[in-house]
Amino acid sequence: MLFKFINLVFKSLGRNKVRTALTGMGVIVLVAIYAIVTNVTSTVKSKISGGDQTRLIVSERWTMPSQIPSRYVSEIAKLPGVKNFTTWTIFVGFLDRIPQADRQVAVLSVHPQTLREMHGGLMDLPDEVYEEWLSTKDAVLVGPGMMKKMNWHIGQQFTVFGARFPPVDVQYRIIGTIPGGEWASAIFCRQDYLADASDNSGSVNAILLSVESEERAKQLASELSKEYENRQPALKIETESAGVARFASRSTAVLQIIDAVVAILLIDMVIILSNSISISVRERRVEMAVLKVLGFQPLHIAIMIIGEAMFVGGIAGMIGTGIVCSISTLTLSGAIPLAKWNSFLLQFPVPWSAVLWSGLLGAGVGLTGSVFPAMATRKVKVSDVFARIA
């Protein structure tokens, strides 16, 4: 009996193939957009709320850009409870001697020995590339997005002409690319090389610390704040999560607007399915009257209508997100050339687990959009329908 009922649902969908296909395509497009947008917002929100409480960011308290004396680095790195550390210094410049806005880059110099351990997502860096990084002083690692944007290749040398005074020109050589992810547009160089090339070994912009426990991180932050409060320069210490939240606070309004757009997308999907099902119900009043004559209860007919909508919504949702996931995977693997329309997928790849959730979402949208049209089938009276035919 159940098989026959399901078969009836499929046959009903095939009565107007054009409408079913157009409805499905509309849902596919909207779910694909929904999957992309929610993936971006959820990634950003996870970075804001999910920062590591055992990692500390040390910067200068009163000056921007921060300039921490190099002697502080050795002092702080030796403190009890510090498992690992790295330094950050950002070198901003242009790839041409005559500055052009689209040729501006920011090179992030770090402690070479702790590159993988202190930067999330870089543990997948191949061992041979990492060994070359350690042995080559002018080496840089470049994200795939930046490689495509600048049309670079591995082994290429380039010069960054410093944007600050006094001007400093630093030459680098690309030895490898960074795995896709949050560093997709980054350029990493060695701190010791930048210090030598720029004749500035006396300071760094920030120190990142990995501490053995969350409790010890709080203690260390308090100790450092007190110890360096009256020294010149004074230091500011905060957890990674607090630092990320502070920088991301400006984008909170943007995220709220995007969430509103997502809600509108869901409403649009409900309206599309509800409109399609409503038209279908009006066209099939005779069929429903016949079903009632054959013994179908109003509840059975309503379930059939809801089942049709949930099936279309669920399948369309999975197809839409499946297309996005395929494009994301192929972009990360390099099978699809990078362009403006897909470069953001390097930083915000869509996981295949989203296909299942999108299927459930589509089915839920189908359920929501078909409830009222399905309830309208209860008002179909056999006598009225056959009287009109006669």
Given helix and strand content, the structural type is alpha+beta
As a percent range, the share of helical residues equals 40-55%
What order do the strands of the largest sheet run in, or round the barrel if closed?
A: 3-4-8-5-7-6
Low-confidence runs of at least 5 consecutive residues: none
Describe the structure.
Helix content is 54%, strand content 16%. It is an alpha+beta fold. The chain folds into two domains: 2-47 and 251-389, no CATH class; 55-212, no CATH class. A six-stranded mixed β-barrel has the order 3-4-8-5-7-6, surrounded by four helices.
Quick synopsis:
The protein has 390 residues and is of the alpha+beta class. Helix content is 54%, strand content 16%.
Descriptive terms for the model:
2 domains; single chain; 390 residues; 11 strands
Write the layout of secondary structure elements.
Elements (H helix, E strand, L loop, with lengths): L1 H12 L3 H33 L5 E6 L7 E2 H8 L4 E13 L9 E7 L4 H4 L8 H9 L3 E4 L1 H7 L6 E6 L6 E9 L9 E4 H7 L5 E2 L1 E6 L2 H14 L7 E5 H9 L3 H32 L1 H9 L4 H36 L19 H24 L5 H8 L1
Helix pairs in contact: 1-12, 2-10, 2-12, 10-13, 11-14, 12-13
